[in-house]
Amino acid sequence: MSPDQLIIIRETRDRLEPQLTELSSTVHAALYEVDANTSSTFRGGGGAGCDVGALLDLLVNMSEDPHRLVPTVAELGRRHAESAVRQADYRVTGIALLRALERLLGPAFTPEVHDAWAEAFAVVSTVMERGALRASGEWNPRSDRG
User: Fold this and answer.
1) In the chain, where are the structural domains located?
2) What ranges in the chain are assigned the alpha helix state H?
3) Which backbone phi and psi does 83 adopt, to 5 degrees?
4) How do residues 61-97 score in pLDDT, each as one tens digit?
């Protein structure tokens, strides 16, 4: 992530602090629109998954210091896999998060804000997915070599 994207992530997170309850509801609604099965994996959607405020904090913290947080985020991915979170759920969650941010931020949801949050989510979800695959024994780091 670029320094400008880090600033955008932090500023947007701070701006959303008083709206976390509304953001949570909006994310859950967007999850349901995209994939009702994924919506049930989140708290507030009847599941035991992460809450939206914790997700935003994770995205901000991981963006600011990714090397320090990789082991923690990978472990979180392992725990999500144990809770029946599927790989496809990460993509759906990213789409829902971006939709919710757009709905709440309105005109302030610029292409730059979109790209910063999409990048942050891509980094976190990739590390979580690898953590889940490693824990299951399904990840082969050599499978990408040609």
Assistant:
1) 3-136
2) 3-16, 20-34, 36-39, 52-64, 66-82, 87-105, 111-136
3) -95, 15
4) 877 787 888 888 888 888 877 777 777 778 888 999 9
DSSP 51: -
Query: What are the residues whose beta carbons fall under 8 Å from the beta carbon of 140, sequence distance 6 or more?
Result: none
Residue from 36, 53, 32 nearest 99 by CA: 32
83-133 pLDDT tens trace: 777 777 788 889 999 999 999 999 999 999 999 999 998 988 888 888 888
CA–CA separation, 116 vs 12, rounded Å?
A: 10
As to burial, measured by CB atoms within 10 angstroms (0-12 exposed, 13-18 middle, 19+ buried), residue 3 is exposed
The Cα 5–Cα 119 span in angstroms is 9
Of 121, 140, 129, 43, give the one whose Cα is nearest residue 79.
129
Q: Which CATH superfamily does the domain covering 3-136 fall into?
A: Globins (1.10.490.10)
